[in-house]
Amino acid sequence: MLVYLIRRLFNVAATLLVVSVVTFGIFFAVPKLTGSDPALMYAGRETNETALAGIRVKMGFDKPISEQYLLFVKGIFAGRDYDGGTGVTHCAAPCFGYSFKTEAPVWQTMMDRIPVTLSLALGAAVIWVLAGVATGVVSALKRRTAIDRTVMVGALAGVSLPIFFTGMVAPAIFVYSLGWLDVSNYKPLTEDPLAWLNSLILPWVTLAFLFAATYARITRATMLEVLGEDYIRTARAKGLKEGVVIRKHALRSTLTPIVTMFGLDLGGLLGGAVLTETTFNFQGLGTAAVAAISQGDLPVIMGVTLLAALFVVLANLIVDLLYAVIDPRVRLT
Amino acid sequence: GGDKKDDKADAAESGKGYSGAAEGVINASDAKGGELKLWSPQDVDYLDPQRAYYGFVWDIQRLYVRSLLAYDAKPGKDGTKAVPDLAEALPVVTNDGKTYTLKLKDGVKFEDGTPITSKDVKYGVERVFAQDVLSGGPTYLIDLLDQGQKYPGPYKDTDPDKMGLKSVQTPDDKTIVFNLASANADFSYLLAMPTSSPVQASKDTGATYTNKPLSTGPYKVESFTAGKGATFVRNENWDPKTDPIRKGLPDKVSFTVTTNPDDMDQRLLSGDIDLAIDGTGVQQAAKNKILKDANLKKNADNPFTGYIRYFAFPTTVAPFDNIECRKAVIYAADPKSLQTARGGPTSGDLGANMLPPGVPGSDKSYDPFGLTKGKPQEAKAKEALKACGKPDGFETTIAVRNNKAPEVKTAESLQASLAKVGIKATIDQYDGKLNSSVIGSPENVKKKGYGIIVMGWGADYNSGSGFLQPLVDGSFILPNGNNNYTMINDPEINGLFKTAATKSPEEAAPFYTQINQKVMEKALYLPINFDKALVYHNPRLTNVFFNESFGKIDLATVGIKQ
Amino acid sequence: MTAPLHDTSAETPAPVSVADVPAKAIEGRSPGRIAWMRLRRDKVALTGGVVVILLILVAIFAPLIVKLLGHDPNEFHEDLIDPDLGTPLGSLGGISSDYLLGVEPTNGRDVFSRIVYGARISLIVAFLAAFVSVVLGSFLGALAGFIGGWVDGVISRLMDLLLAFPQLLFTIALVSVVPNSVWGFEGSGVRMGVLILVIGFFGWPYIGRIVRGQTISLREREYVEAARSLGAGRGYILVKELMPNLVAPILVYTTLIIPTNILTEAALSFLGAGVKPPTSSWGKMLSDAVPIYQDDPMYMVVPGMTIFITVLAFNLFGDGLRDALDPKGS
Amino acid sequence: MTENQNNGAPAFVPEQGSPRDGAPFLSVRDLKVHFPTDDGLVKSVDGLSFDLERGKTLGIVGESGSGKSVTSLAIMGLHRTGNARSRPHISGEVVLDGEELVSASADHVRRLRGRKMAMVFQDPLSAMHPYYSVGKQIIEAYRTHHDVDKKTARTRAVEMLDRVGIPEPHRRVDAYPHEFSGGMRQRAMIAMALVNNPELLIADEPTTALDVTVQAQILDLIRDLQKEFGSAVIMITHDLGVVAEMADDLLVMYGGRCVERGSAEKVFYEPRHPYTWGLLGSMPRIDRDQTDRLIPVKGSPPSLINIPSGCAFNPRCPYADVPKGGITRTQRPELTQDGSRQPALVRLPHVAGGADPDLDRRDCAEAVTDMNKPSEPETLLKVSGLVKHFPINKGLLRRQTGAVKAVDGIDFEVRRGETLGVVGESGCGKSTMGRLITRLLEPTGGRIEFEGQDITHLGVSQMRPLRRDVQMIFQDPYGSLNPRHTVGAIVSAPFNLQGVTPEGGVKAEVQRLLSLVGLNPEHYNRYPHEFSGGQRQRIGIARALALKPKLVVADEPVSALDVSIQAQVVNLLDDLQQELGLTYVIIAHDLSVIRHVSDRIAVMYLGKIVELADRKSLYESPMHPYTNALLSAVPVPDPRRRGVKSGRILLKGDVPSPISPPPGCRFHTRCWKATEICKTQDPPLVALKTGHEVACHHPENAEAATPPASSPAGV
Ligand SMILES: Nc1ncnc2c1ncn2[C@@H]1O[C@H](COP(=O)(O)OP(=O)(O)OP(=O)(O)O)[C@@H](O)[C@H]1O
Ligand SMILES: Nc1ncnc2c1ncn2[C@@H]1O[C@H](COP(=O)(O)OP(=O)(O)OP(=O)(O)O)[C@@H](O)[C@H]1O
Ligand SMILES: [Mg+2]
Ligand SMILES: [Mg+2]
User: Fold this and answer.
1) What is the tens place of the pLDDT at every residue in D56-104?
2) Measured from the CA of D68, which atom of ligand 1 is nearest?
């Protein structure tokens, strides 16, 4: 178990290392090769050579790319000093550098935005798991009935609807036509829980709709498979009530693949629900990344990419550990 | 250069002057109190006066930054005049227009109570030179004052008092003398820019000064968080008696950055907030709401922003070296379509020449190509093509920033119109953030074959040279960050600029009219629009008017109805 | 020897055992034929299939269709636009007999033709990207599953790694990094090429995993053993024994990855990383609709529904195909 | 119900001569279970009636798909659970202890389930929930019907586990199913079924998945528990040996109907239905040295959708055309009761006259041939010291920490023209051995010589020419044929791979092979899924024979097949050997089949050969205690010998792990004769008499043996 964990953590580190090298390479080295200058991107607007030279020294763009990478890595673990001419700015670990655009520390930007993405992803996750699994189970139990067909058609529609479309249609209906909700920007939970809730309901539902559809489909398929298993027959042969058979025996097994999927989906979303955030204009990690990309804000791109990758690999790891908890047959070696 | 002020301007689409704020002051009042709530979808670039370049930040800086001169807080033409602010009077110009001497008023202080001296003003000017640390702001002062000294800015200054810039002298604490290398009529405008405002050397924190600049105006920065906003509270050390420009009516001013412009518009229309200070106008949804609703419409204004939108034809790229080919494009274009692409009449008036209204010397009615008729002139275009030797048209590339939706749309419109006369234009969207090295590099323009460049331009200060010179003066051609995209280097035009520089603004105006005509005759530009914005303000605001120098509601006087 | 005692076929209706019946049909019902028969019975999937084929035809004959029913997709019609509001004149986004799906706000381009031409982009990108993913995924997946050992290790790690990348972000980033002209190609073609390669590249680990898993399970089947016992080499086993059995999952996955690709392409266009104007694209139309959708909802609905119907059709067809190819299905 | 043939009164004549008074404990009347499917109505059970008394055991036998399981599930009311849409139509009566269950409310039946009637399923691994501990599942069964706290229930669970012979029940109660061996799982299943003292126990193939030794343990256990609890038991199986050992009464099912029913003895000794004869005749028997052919039932089981009109067995029946009692082929014969026999023996009217002795074996006569094996056998394959270890990699660096010693030093030889049978419990390394000698696996050590050539470490290409001579037949008729290839492609693959073009072309040769194995050569273009299991196995055989191999290794060639089909295939193998002079190595766990087909037999235990002898010698006087135990564990299909069989040796426990086999003699942990020497010294395989080698320190039947004068190493 411990050995397993060590090996997995080693894998996590290795994956992140490769992700960081590749990302760094693509965003720092490639522009250099094609002749564009990160200092120019940093300066962004009309600028002059003095300013550029200053930026190069301060941000370390004058150093070889490998050294820049090492500095970057060092910054994450040990912090990093920037010599800005008027004195040294220390960027404490974990230091992902400073945004080219806002000059705010990238770490700070990410930390500011994580609550948004977290609220969005977690809330939606709760909804989609509950709704998806519940409808999937009902659908499986009511197989080939009208309910089943309706749910499955709805699920297929859900899978086929682009979220940037539902994300527009939902407010058009619920805000502008029916007036049930206000359109509003993300409000921090800590400031005003009600406003937080109000601002999140539509994005949650929109995002959850997409995933719930997938989950309902998978739950249904798995459930049907599980219901055909011998041990379900055994449970019934014991005289268990049907409800107990479904809940304790069938659902438990059905959940295993769901857990895997859930972990990965959530892991992916935590790195930024790009489309949902964009559609609803939420300032989460996803929009941060998109904005950073369109502005050539390399440190933010690096930071968000690494963070997103970290979420994914950690989710993977957790899913695997969870798997072992759920399924006693799985041995972690 | 207007590029930076204009960063956000394109997101706006705009209308006609519905109520008076674009023409006169509305709700004049001296009532004090209340909180002025300013919102913006765009964060400030810097609060540091030497680094700020966004137009709306300059407007905000009227709350806490005073410089030697400042634009008067008056509607119409008066607002474009620089009047004494910290200085007792307008500069005394001697030495054939090369020496500017100013004296500071008595009783002007920093927010910490320290009196402002001429050294503080000089130090402020010197900070502009430290571009390696304090990049971002306009650098005209360097161009005019460095005079070969290669002054590195105060941080690397070897002078013990950090007063090493030779061209500026401070004979005493009240007097400051600027020595120019040659006469320059626009220097007063530069003195009215926040870059010329005083900074106390002992309080200078370098790159982080932007987080807490020391106030000299009616308000001081209470808090500032990048990306979120700022609050300004009363500065007790501001003496209204020394300040003929600012009123300082609200008790507090808050500035909030939003990420959802539509949400901001909605708050604005519902009266939650007072003003979208970025001044680029409301979003499409709110715009249509306002235009359809007379009640809302009366609180809206549709002023000129001082920008012009245009296509430029680099003469280094064939076949645009041939004037007939340039004319062909101009005639083939559909001005109405281009205007619609930018957002319709509220987004600007059809522009027919290169000097926008408000700039001394401009003439809105000057229309050498009949563009204001709003129709493509295919026959003329074909004729021009024939004259150019390309009766079947030609192929070319339109360069457009990828981050400006209306520019992309205008490019598409032009592309569609050109196709009708056989000119096949390909649209190349480049990374808008890199424009100084993409279209700003003549070499690159030539290499990529950009025959048509879509851009917008607004002056940093309101004079014909401030507006036109970077665009058409051959001596302004730069290897990088060039704005003279057409690469015109006409001795006659260059000469006209030189002469105009020695004249007073009033005397200079006809020269700019002349330059404008020369440029248009060469068919170097296809103007699209004199830019406008549809701006809505909370009806509770008092002393509302648009200051033509910023194209925005002047914050120096705005108050709240009590 | 073991000839039937009695030939009962004359009287026995359809006995299960074929051996006892003289062959009426010598031609066997191949698994593919059976799948096709099953598919033919699945009306829903067939509907999806028909829509897919229609879409493909629309894409192929876009110029003809537009000539007959629409206007030049890049032609501006400002006369159809309210100049102040920027919205189309007339109700429902300017739908009329002349402009079947209305016109674009701001410039009045014919939405119908733009949708029709957009189908080309969507389908070309989706199909070719699927092709890239499937080729890479099948090849590497089969290789990993079949050879095992360190080859498997390396390929599996690579797949894990790619899946750990925030793909959408990376795709946007890569698309925007690539210059306008590459090796003499320019404009939309380059951008489409990049889209195809990037979407395709990030898509392969999904199919790679499936194929790898399938290969591993197939590798253990006794018929592989049988082939080996006949002296078959690796190549023969991979090509002759495994590949035919991998075709079904690959086919199913292909039909299911195509709608995903359509959505991805639309999403990228939506985020501004799609093909370049004036080339029309469904996702771009949707993102253009964002600022104006309260005033001109039709302009949002048309491309939105188009994407929806297209993706739904592919999904329906893919689902049906999967059911039809499922050996467990009845 | 729209069955016109059957709308009359139940054909069953109520038994008048029932020995007991009152109604029987379980009475099933005209039970029908019909599944509506897309292809039509599947009549899985179609009018079944029987009775069962307390304390008695009813055996239900029949081929796969004959409706045995469906019947048992119908009694349990398990068809009525789950989704309404997939439920079958059930009609008829199931009266349990006076209560009618078919029409009772579902909830009422549920309450009876697990308490009054319980069930043991075939595959104990899949029948237990993998995520819950064994104890939890037993506790759940108990608490469903008893209102007790968890502790009490747990005590009960431990008690039951103890009762079914799980060692250390206190500890094992918390184990998960996958941590149990097959036998232990089945014990746990039984404990779960019996935890509520059910009065009716239905065991559906409870031992089919198990080794003979474990099967014997389980059967004993069921018998003991039945005695103790006095329950009625329904024992469903396709193994006639098992019923013969267990059942009082016997019911033979075919195509969803009962074709014969009666006391076990009567059915075994006076079978009336041709299908029953067929079943009995197809069975190779452990107790007879059967050199003649098996008598298979022709063809394969019927489709339950289109059950032939008339007798369902009609298409396969050798008597179908023998007119008896004026019944035509399309008429369905009714069960009749023979009043003279108790309990009722039912029979078909048109064979009322009893088995026709001529017809009985009429197709065997020509098959009874002399086994003309070469007298001076020459060695074809010689294996010495063969070892195969599968490495186990563990730990941070995935270093090898151990090995599965699947084959651990075996020596034997195969002579030209003979059949070597290899038997042993599951996991003892039989398949590994088979794959080693066909060089599908690379040996870890030892030496394999084929026709004098060392082939131990030949590479793929060096092996290729030899592949013609050594061929394999596989166990799984489904897995061994590529579903995407036509039969023609499958059978011609050997030619293509070896680059051989037979005379007359590949296609003609393939068709010849197909007819050789009894398939229609016209089916050349068909796909495997269009064939039944037995036919598929023939395709596999045709493929193996294509290149005229000298040696054929068959790994469990018939164990996946039904008895009747099994007999067909066994006969085919026999015939082919005769005709083509083949040499076989046949691997199987079924000692009866092995006895039937082999000339010499090797018994394997934990990667070693413990005994190697010719058939007669091995079966009549086995020397190794393990062989003895194996043989005694095989149930004999003869009810009369049930009581007589005294010498049954029950082996304790399971086969130890091949990762760390016991030191010394590997069998010593389960051997009742083991002494100190067995724990330390590994006995070598020595020939104690001619043609009889054994590896044991304390061989049995050794007195009969003449120890070889010298050479303790044997041959
Ligand atoms: N749910 C169902 N739907 C349709 N057909 C079914 C269903 N359950 C069983 N059958 C069919 O009923 C027939 C009898 O099945 P059953 O399981 O009783 O056979 P069996 O005698 O137990 O065979 P085996 O020895 O293989 O276990 C089979 O042909 C089977 O295909
Ligand atoms: N490829 C392999 N890797 C690791 N262990 C293996 C492998 N193949 C077989 N074994 C192990 O070797 C042992 C012998 O397996 P083998 O299949 O030869 O047994 P068998 O006698 O054929 O059993 P059965 O009757 O169940 O088929 C078993 O413990 C098995 O788990
Ligand atoms: Mg069964
Ligand atoms: Mg085996």
Assistant:
1) 999 999 888 888 999 999 999 988 776 666 788 999 999 998 899 999 9
2) 21
Q: Over the stretch D287-346, which tens digit does the pLDDT of each residue have?
A: 766 556 777 777 777 777 777 666 777 777 766 665 555 555 566 666 665 433 333 333
Taking the CA of D604 as reference, the closest ligand is 2
Helix (H/G/I), strand (E/B), else coil: B89 = coil
Predicted confidence (pLDDT) at residue D284 exceeds the cutoff of 70: yes
Distance separating the N- and C-terminal Cα atoms of chain D: 69
CA dist., res. D432 & res. D417, Å (int): 23
Residues of chain C by 3-state class (helix, strand, coil), percent to 5: 70, 0, 30
Cα A221 from Cα A254, distance rounded (Å):
9
Q: With b meaning 16 or more CB within 10 Å and e meaning fewer, what string describes A115-141?
A: ebbebbbebbbebbbebbbebbbbbbb
- This complex has an ipTM of 0.81
Q: What pLDDT score was predicted for residue D366?
A: 32
CA distance D599 to D584: 10
Q: What is the rounded average pLDDT of the residues D224-240?
A: 88
Q: Which residue of C has its CA nearest to A171?
A: C294
pLDDT at A229 over 80: yes
Please, where are the H alpha helices in A44-145? 49-59, 65-78, 106-141
Note whether A274 contacts C168, CB cutoff 8 Å: yes
H-type helices in A245-297, by residue range?
A: 252-270, 274-280, 285-295
Query: For chain C, which residues score pLDDT lower than 50?
Result: 1-25, 329-330
CA atoms within 13 A on the CB side of B121: 33
Residues shown for chain A: 333
Please spell the DSSP secondary structure of A58-77, one letter per residue. HHTTTS-HHHHHHHHHHHHH
Q: Cα(C87)–Cα(B344) distance, rounded to whole angstroms? A: 10
Three-state secondary-structure class, residue B532: strand
Domain boundaries, chain A: 2-95, 107-332
In chain C, what is the straight-line distance between the N-terminal and C-terminal CA atoms, in Å? 35
What pLDDT is attached to residue D324?
52
The per-residue pLDDT for D344 is: 33
- Is residue D655 packed enough to be buried (19+ CB in 10 Å), middle (13-18) or exposed (0-12)? buried
Euclidean distance between CA atoms B266 and A184, whole angstroms: 10
Ion ligand 4 — residues with CB under 5 Å?
D 431
Contact at 8 Å (CB) between D472 and D555? yes
Whether A54 and B403 lie within 8 Å, measured CB to CB: no
Secondary structure (3-state) at B171: coil
pLDDT, tens only, B237-269 = 999 999 999 998 999 999 998 877 888 888 898
Going by C-alpha positions, the residue among B501, B502, B500 that lies closest to residue B510 is B500
SS3 B400: strand
State the amino acid at position C23 in one-letter form: A
Q: What's the CA gap between A104 and A85, in Å, rounded?
A: 18
Nearest to D87 by CA among D31, D33, D47: D33
Structure tokens at A259: 């857990």
What residues flank ion ligand 3 with Cβ within 5 A? D 69
Tell me the per-residue pLDDT of A1-24, one tens digit each, with 9 for 90 and over. Answer: 788 888 888 888 888 888 888 888
What are the angstrom distances between the C-alpha of D458 and each of A148, C321, D289?
Answer: 59, 45, 40
Domains of chain C as residue ranges with CATH: 49-325 (1.10.3720.10)
Picking from D38, D363, D572, the nearest residue to C330 by CB comes out as D38
Query: Given ligand 1 and candidates D31, D38, D42, which is best to mutate, with the most ligand atoms within 8 Å of its CB?
Result: D42
CATH of domain A107-332: 1.10.3720.10
Q: How many residues does chain D have?
A: 715
pTM strictly above 0.90: no
